[in-house]
Design goal:
By secondary structure, this protein is α/β, with parallel strands linked by helices. The chain has helices at about 10-20, 40-50, 65-80, 120-140, 160-170, 190-200, 220-230, 260-265, 270-285; strands at about 1-5, 25-30, 55, 90-100, 140-150, 150, 175-180, 185, 185-190, 210-215, 220, 235-245. The protein contains nine helices and twelve strands.
């Protein structure tokens, strides 16, 4: 099986490429160094050269400071040319969406929740999901959108919350906590990768299916720090209210994962305590950061 993975240099992309190759897939991975996916001509050429049976669309951009940044981010996150560039042999396109495509809600979010994106990133991800579904239906290619909740695990960006908290356990740095309660549904990166692979192989999955990928359990930042202390066996200093928080912070952000269980046979296999323990052990095998982490720029999946 031939796979093309866009965003192969990203956090989830690296884990997915490793999994696919271990399973015997022939993988072409595209990173920012390989091709500018904001350029539709270059992107289409790269897709054609890969000649894939399955495309995993994981590339995502977040820059928004300038008009040019926003235009490039929109182009990458929507990639409206992607489906048109697919070879006839392609059987499926699996897009990794984001839970920020939804509005916050005080109950577990199912796939029929209204699309009311939180922020510019969420809006571009939602637009990309809709464009993919429409283009794939026109082309007769099966598509699936997996809206992941808060993904974590080894190799995540060092400015995200879990790396910040675990690095603080190693160095004694202080973790600034947000000014208001912030909860997330934390889902292990390996479980997200497994959902991607299952969706690619599920030929009976209806085209255009959207599935939420999360655990159905939400955890506050403070609770996550406490769990990290237990698994690392080290105290973690915090500064309550020292972090201003983010626009998307909410007291309730949780997935209803029942549709993924029903349609893919997928359920999360790693809970937060075990996932943090695995991430802690993976970090112990690498060199510590040169400077202690002093802040957390927590971003949604």
């Amino acid at each position: 099986m031939r796979a093309l993975v866009t965003g192969a240099g990203g956090f989830v992309g690296r884990h997915l490429v490793t999994r696919l190759r271990a399973d015997g897939w022939a993988v072409t991975g595209l990173t920012r160094a390989d091709v500018d996916l904001a350029d539709p001509v270059a992107g289409a050429a790269a897709v054609g050269a890969a000649d894939p049976d399955v495309v995993f669309s994981l590339a995502a951009a977040r820059r928004k400071a300038t008009a040019a940044d926003r235009a490039a981010t929109t182009a990458v996150n929507t990639s409206p040319w992607l489906v048109e560039a697919l070879p006839d042999r392609c059987r499926a396109v699996v897009r990794l969406g984001s839970s920020t495509e939804y509005a916050a809600a005080p109950h577990p979010l199912a796939e029929d929740a209204a699309l009311r994106p939180r922020g510019f990133f969420g809006a571009t991800k939602a637009a990309g999901s809709l464009l993919l579904q429409a283009a794939a239906a026109e082309r007769g290619v099966r598509s699936a959108v997996l809206r992941a909740f808060q993904v974590y695990g080894p190799g995540d960006h060092p400015a995200r919350l879990v790396p910040v908290v675990l690095e603080a356990a190693r160095t004694g740095a202080t973790v600034p906590l947000p000014t208001r309660v912030s909860r997330r549904d934390w889902v292990w990166v390996g479980d997200v990768v497994d959902a991607c692979v299952r969706a690619a192989l599920a030929d009976d999955l209806p085209g255009g299916t959207v599935l939420n990928i999360g655990t159905g359990v939400q955890t506050s930042t403070e609770e996550l720090v406490g769990t990290a202390e237990r698994v690392s066996g080290r105290p973690i200093a915090t500064a309550p209210g020292a972090h201003p928080g983010r626009d998307w912070d909410t007291a309730d952000w949780m997935c209803d994962p029942r549709a993924a269980a029903r349609l893919l046979g997928w359920t999360p296999t790693v809970d937060l305590a075990e996932g943090l323990a695995r991430t802690w052990r993976a970090g112990a095998a690498t060199e510590p950061a040169a400077q202690p982490v002093v802040g957390a720029a927590v971003e949604p999946a």
